[in-house]
From TrEMBL:
InterPro entries: D12N6_MeTrfase_N (IPR022749), DNA_Adenine_Mtase (IPR051537), DNA_methylase_A-5 (IPR003356), DNA_methylase_N6_adenine_CS (IPR002052), Restrct_endonuc_T1M (IPR004546), SAM-dependent_MTases_sf (IPR029063), T1MK-like_N_sf (IPR038333). Keywords: Coiled coil, Methyltransferase, Restriction system, S-adenosyl-L-methionine, Transferase. It comes from Methanomethylovorans hollandica (strain DSM 15978 / NBRC 107637 / DMS1). SUPFAM superfamilies: S-adenosyl-L-methionine-dependent methyltransferases. This is site-specific DNA-methyltransferase (adenine-specific). GO terms for biological process: DNA restriction-modification system; methylation.
């Protein structure tokens, strides 16, 4: 059975458990990723002539497996596996597998490395061919590990990884997918880290392009080289060295230029000029614009990018917000860049996205090709759109798509985005701080003083709900009535607000229309999904499906197309993705398998069976509804009897209760007590209670037996039905019953949210102004008089 993608991730992450404790995540990541690398290249390239990676004789993963349990396993891995691989492929130095300070010594090291290798022996981790060719499963697993390593490494050691979501935005806003790329198209990252950002750009291109990267840290540049190989880009050229002081990509003494340049350089690098004389820069990166300040290297990296771009080149750089508004030398550089027309756009990101810092960052988009025609800079403030993910913030699929859509189409959206003319920027002294141009603050919910004094809901607050009234114009008149000029009163009982909204003909018609709208997409999606076959490409499937859904809900009232899109992407992440990879591997096959668990002694225990693609519940719902009704009925009867038994115990559990003489209330003790008090007239009430309990206990036992028999019979029928399923049956169960039903439920939830949002606001306004100040004062006076009266009767006089 094929390994689910989520299980691939968790099995790789479990390998880290073997290394935790002895070292920081920034160190043990090297061991895990090197092992992943060796397993991959061994599976994919061992014995393959003219392969991009040479696997020397005796240096494959199989040879590493042969070292398991040997007392000198660490030393042998270094000598027989690592050294030949490094030498044959000119790789960077790899971690020391015989390092006692990190891996322990003696038996501890032997056990740790043996267990680590065993995890990668999982037969499902076979990379001899990429499952679903074209879907980078291993690359995704690598990305998954990198995210976790960065999270665990803490604030100071997350520089080796750019969050995938930010990389995806940069790759898409460059427009490389729309360009006519060829193998001669070049992309470059001067501070490439582990290479994730550069690879995202390559993924966006429609054809294979040529990749270049440079990374200062030796260990991280080694990760980048491995990452390129793992992502089927073994020909990528990655150099180690200081990009500013010693750029490696130089032609005839001049910086090599590229079609696309991307970077996530170290923020505010205070040592950027080490080994460099900025006044006499050989490559003239600073002369046309100005020299960055000695303690702020942000513009040094940005100017390196500008210089490294062809005259038609496009680039993007992640930098701290300070570059947008800091003064002195940086102000001069900023002014010169703007006047050149090089800056196409600025995208403000949420705070706490990056692993090396909690400060907010922005993406500076450079485009030389249209520089001479540029009239302004397109700005986006996306700082409010994110979700919490543990200690960090994370961009959701909807946030990424919205940024890319808005930037690509240059769409002006109030409080989010706008094109800002150079004239306006000049009036602001070339300060690019986003709040100067985009007021992203949410409007404050103002309290109306006259409303509080005299009652009545301000008409302005009701007008602010106009998007609802546009859809349901008569609903406003149903909910509100005239009070006095500029003020309204609630026309229905406060408790009836929700039902009034939900049952109103206009709102009902809106809900029905939206349901019908989803049904149209559902039918189209069902037809498309049923066409999936083995060797289909899951990433292409979700791309097509999600774009269709997004377009289907464009410009619909009250509901955000991006909210709907997010429901699909969430479901894809949790369930549908694994299903599609199973189908891509095996076709439409509903395979059952036993769930075997091992106890602490290693003894196996059968915990039943399951089916990943078509879980038992869907078989039961479609084919064995009557049998399930019997189970449900028995379950309800059992719950009722158990509740009555519990209630009887609670009523008679005190010191004088019928169960007071029992150490524990169970069948044996109750039966023994009944024998003990048999014929005792004074214990008749106690005996009656105990007999009632005993009868309930017998009923409960009978029901449990019947329920277990019914469940076992249903389980057996369901299990036996799987081999009878046709391919059409499986498609119906998976596409209609499982996938589209789940999405239908989620999107219907959006309809409920709309009605709840309106209900909550109307109720909030009604409650805010229902008690005017004079009435409140009068009520306080009445309560005060009442309290004073009580005090006076108690002998206190005020």
């Amino acid at each position: 059975m094929a390994l689910k993608k989520s299980e691939l991730y968790s099995s790789l992450w479990s390998s880290c458990d073997e290394l935790r404790g002895g070292m920081d995540a920034s160190q043990y990541k090297d061991y895990v990723l090197v092992l992943l690398f060796i397993k991959y290249v061994s599976d994919k390239y061992a014995g393959v002539p003219y392969a991009p990676i040479t696997i020397p004789e005796g240096a494959s993963f199989a040879d590493m497996v042969a070292l398991k349990g040997k007392p000198d396993i660490g030393d042998q891995i270094n000598k027989k596996i690592i050294a030949p691989l490094v030498s044959a492929n000119k790789l960077s130095d790899m971690p020391d597998f015989h390092d006692a300070t990190k891996l322990g010594s003696g038996k501890e090291q032997v056990d740790r490395l043996t267990n680590l290798i065993a995890i990668f022996e999982n037969p499902a981790l076979d990379f001899s061919k990429n499952r679903a060719e074209g879907d980078d499963i291993l690359g995704d697993a690598y990305e998954y590990l990198m995210r976790h390593f960065a999270t665990e490494s803490g604030k100071s050691k997350g520089q080796f990884y750019t969050p995938a979501e930010v990389s995806r935005i940069i790759a898409q806003i460059l427009g490389i997918r729309q360009a006519d790329t060829t193998s001669s198209t070049t992309a470059y990252d001067p501070t490439c880290g582990s290479g994730s950002l550069l690879l995202k750009v390559a993924d966006e291109a429609r054809t294979k392009i040529t990749l270049y990267g440079q990374e200062k840290d030796a260990a991280t540049s080694g990760l980048a080289r491995m990452n390129m190989i793992l992502h089927n880009n073994p020909e990528a050229l990655i150099w180690q060295g200081n990009t500013l002081a010693d750029p490696k990509f130089v032609e005839d003494g001049i910086l090599k230029t590229f079609d696309y340049v991307v970077a996530n350089p170290p923020f505010s690098d205070k040592r950027w000029s080490t080994g460099l004389d900025p006044l006499h820069d050989t490559y003239e990166r600073f002369k046309p614009f100005g020299i960055p300040p000695a303690k702020q290297g942000d513009y040094a990296y940005l100017l390196h990018i500008v210089r490294s771009l062809k005259s038609t080149g496009k680039g993007a750089c992640i930098l701290p917000h300070g570059v947008l508004f800091r003064g002195n030398a940086e102000a001069d550089i900023r002014r010169n860049l703007i006047r050149k027309g090089y800056i196409k756009g600025i995208i403000g990101l949420p705070a706490n996205l990056f692993y090396g810092t909690g400060i907010p960052a922005c993406i500076i988009v450079i485009d030389k090709e249209e520089a001479h025609n540029r009239k302004g800079i397109f700005m986006i403030d996306a700082s409010a759109d994110f979700m919490k993910d543990g200690p960090k913030n994370r961009l959701r699929a909807r946030d990424i798509h919205k940024i890319v859509d808005v930037f690509t189409k240059q769409t002006d959206i109030p409080k989010y985005s706008r094109m800002v003319s150079f004239e306006e920027i000049g009036k602001n002294e070339f300060n690019l701080n986003l709040p100067r141009y985009i007021d992203s603050q949410q409007a404050e919910d103002l309290q109306d003083i006259e409303g509080h004094l005299h009652g009545g809901i301000p008409t302005a607050d009701v007008d602010a709900l106009q998007r609802y009234w546009d859809v349901c114009p008569e609903l406003r008149q149903t909910l509100f009535k005239a009070n006095r000029p500029n003020y309204l009163a609630l026309a229905v009982d406060k408790a009836a607000i929700k039902s009034t909204i939900y049952e109103h003909p206009e709102f009902s018609a809106f809900i029905s229309g939206m349901n019908a709208h989803f049904a149209v997409w559902q039918e189209q999606a069902s037809a498309m999904l049923r066409e999936l076959q083995a060797d289909s490409h899951p990433k292409e499937v979700i791309a097509k499906l999600s774009e269709d859904l997004l377009a289907h809900y464009a410009d619909k009232p009250l509901i955000s197309q991006y909210d709907v899109y997010q429901h699909l992407m969430d479901y894809w992440e949790t369930t549908m993705q694994d299903d599609c990879y199973l189908i891509a591997d095996e076709g439409w096959k509903a395979k059952t398998y036993r769930i075997i668990e091992k106890d602490k002694k290693g003894k196996e225990k059968d915990k039943g069976w399951t089916c990943d693609l078509v879980p038992k519940s869907f078989i039961v719902a479609r084919f064995f509804a009557k049998e399930q009704e019997i189970v449900d009925k028995l379950t309800a009867e059992l719950e009722s009897v158990t509740a009555r038994s519990t209630e009887l115990e609670e009523e008679n559990s005190g010191e004088e209760g019928a169960f007071s003489e029992l150490d524990k209330v169970n069948k044996a003790n109750v039966t023994a007590r009944l024998k003990e008090i048999k014929g005792d007239r004074e214990a008749q009430e106690e005996a009656a209670v105990l007999n009632d309990w005993l009868q309930l206990a017998n009923e409960e036992a009978d029901l449990k037996k019947h329920l277990k028999d019914a469940e076992n019979a249903l389980d057996a029928k369901a299990y036996a039905h799987y081999p009878q399923l046709t391919e059409d049956d499986i498609k119906t169960l998976v596409v209609d019953d499982k996938w589209l039903t789940a999405l239908d439920t989620a999107i219907h939830g959006e309809m409920d949210r709309i009605s709840q949002s309106l209900t909550q606001r109307v109720k909030e306004l009604a409650e805010r102004y229902e008690t005017p100040m004079p009435l409140m004062t009068e009520r306080v006076a009445q309560l005060e008089a009442k309290v004073n009266g009580h005090l006076e009767r108690m002998g206190f006089r005020l």
